[in-house]
């Protein structure tokens, strides 16, 4: 099957450039979905469009055998591109800064390779192109839109993600691999007034500042050091003018955890700290909490991961490595959990190998290798696309 990769590459590379140049935000992936559906039909798959809004499913039946689902996410980010690529985004303030364009391209390539080599496998391949991963509700939207009835029983679900590690590598890991994530919007209230008379006010800026400082102690003083937790306050908004004390402040924070009990404990601690600081500041109203953009924990099934890992080792050799657990988050696991099937999620590299080696030698990886969501994130075209396509085919053949 992979002998056909050079032929597939002739359309894959232009398609990737096109997708990168025309990114679409979450729930707006209409052009991308159309490109995906047309390519799947050209490859001979049965196509279902509009699942969960803009989701697309392609089904390839090839006799009796296992039923394998492979997923790619399609949405881009509200980021202004700064890569300088000749095929940089043409959409102002929108960019494929997380590699979802590569995910789509690789899965389309894998689908065509399976279609071109029916003599090499048996069973059913289900390719799922998911919207709105970046906002954490795209997978759930497809599930709620009747995904189980549409795809039928499954044996396994597979997914991958491009990361800022050397292109050509694939990385697997059993067990917890990506954190759960929760975003929270907190509104605290003060009493507004003139900046020259703070004694007549309850200053929400000071209140918010004290909350930020105290929140730092949750991780450092309340969580076992062996349990990884990341708590970040990413935004504080209050006031309109230098000499006006406003009447409220809005904080937005993000929590990453690898353990459900720790997750619950930290969320409860956040509320406790905020309420206590509001009381200490004599806030005239109770604080308000809004939990949004929650992502599930990603826990790779041990047996499924072992099978994929063995296949990768045989095909990729020393380019198959172990993936460290990461504080990134994904909503992919919503799909196999809802469908009751085991799954594994792996990473593949997109960074220029020599540039990565130079950065390691100079101890400048963090500075010189742009990470996902950076305006400079730009996977090298090859061998990134080849590796992502090969990985899907190799993993799929472990069952099919």
Characterization of this structure:
With 400 residues, the protein is of the alpha/beta class. It is 37% helix and 26% strand. It has helices at residues 5-21, 30-42, 100-116, 138-144, 147-151, 204-222, 260-280, 302-316, 334-339, 353-361, 365-368, 384-397; strands spanning 46-51, 55-62, 67-73, 123-130, 156-166, 170-172, 175-178, 180-189, 193-194, 229-238, 244-245, 248-257, 288-295, 298-300, 320-322, 343-351. The strands form four sheets. Strands 1-2-4-3-5-16-6-15 form an eight-stranded mixed β-sheet, sandwiched between helices. It comes from Mycolicibacterium setense.
How do the strands of the widest beta sheet line up side by side?
A: 1-2-4-3-5-16-6-15
What percentage of amino acids are in beta strands?
Answer: 25-35%
Query: Which residue ranges are poorly predicted, with pLDDT under 50 across at least 5 consecutive positions?
Result: none
Approximate shape: elongated
State the total count of DSSP E strands. Answer: 16
Number of helices: 12
N to C succession of SSEs? HHEEEHEHHEEEEEHEEEHEEHEHEHHH
Largest sheet: 8 strands, mixed
Oligomeric state of this protein: single chain
**Overall pLDDT level:** 97
Helix content: 25-40%
* Class per helix and strand makeup: alpha/beta
Termini, distance in Å?
A: 12 Å
What Rg is obtained from the alpha carbons, in whole angstroms?
A: 23 Å
Short synopsis of the structure:
37% of the residues lie in helices and 26% in strands. By secondary structure, it is of the alpha/beta class. The longest helix is centred in the C-terminal third of the chain and has 21 residues, at 260-280.
């Amino acid at each position: 099957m992979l002998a056909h990769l050079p032929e597939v590459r002739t359309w894959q590379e232009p398609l990737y450039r096109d997708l990168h140049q025309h990114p679409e935000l979450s729930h707006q992936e209409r052009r991308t979905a159309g490109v995906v559906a047309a390519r799947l039909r050209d490859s001979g798959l049965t196509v279902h469009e509009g699942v969960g809004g803009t989701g697309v499913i392609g089904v390839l039946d090839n006799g009796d055998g296992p039923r394998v689902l492979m997923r790619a996410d399609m949405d881009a980010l509200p980021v202004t591109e700064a890569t300088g690529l000749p095929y940089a985004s043409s959409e102002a303030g929108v960019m494929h800064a997380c590699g979802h364009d590569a995910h789509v391209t690789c899965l389309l390539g894998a689908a065509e390779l399976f279609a071109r080599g029916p003599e090499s496998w048996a069973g059913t391949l289900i390719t799922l192109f998911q919207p709105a991963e970046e906002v954490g509700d795209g997978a759930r939207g497809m599930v709620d839109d009747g995904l189980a009835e549409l795809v039928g029983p499954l044996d396994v679900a597979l997914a991958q993600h491009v990361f800022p590690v050397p292109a050509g590598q694939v990385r697997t890991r059993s067990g917890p691999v990506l954190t759960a994530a929760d975003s929270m919007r907190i509104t605290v209230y003060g009493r507004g007034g003139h900046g020259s008379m703070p004694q007549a006010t309850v200053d929400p800026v000071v209140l918010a500042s004290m909350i930020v400082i105290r929140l730092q102690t949750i991780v450092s003083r309340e969580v076992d050091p062996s349990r990884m937790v990341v708590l970040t306050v990413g935004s504080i908004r209050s006031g309109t003018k230098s000499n006006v004390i406003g009447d409220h402040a809005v904080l937005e924070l993000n929590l990453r955890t690898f353990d459900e009990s720790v997750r619950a404990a930290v969320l409860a601690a956040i509320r406790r700290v905020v309420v206590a600081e509001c009381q200490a500041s004599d806030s005239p109203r109770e604080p308000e909490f809004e939990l949004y953009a929650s992502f599930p924990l990603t826990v790779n099934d041990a047996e499924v991961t072992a099978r994929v890992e063995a296949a990768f080792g045989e095909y990729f050799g020393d380019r198959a490595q172990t993936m460290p657990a990461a504080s990134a988050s994904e909503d992919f696991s919503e799909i196999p959990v809802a469908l009751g099937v085991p799954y594994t999620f792996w990473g593949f590299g997109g960074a220029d190998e020599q540039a990565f080696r130079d950065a390691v030698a100079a101890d400048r990886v963090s500075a010189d290798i742009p990470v996902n969501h950076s305006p400079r994130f730009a996977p090298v075209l090859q061998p990134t696309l080849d590796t992502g396509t090969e990985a899907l085919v190799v993993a799929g053949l472990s069952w099919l």
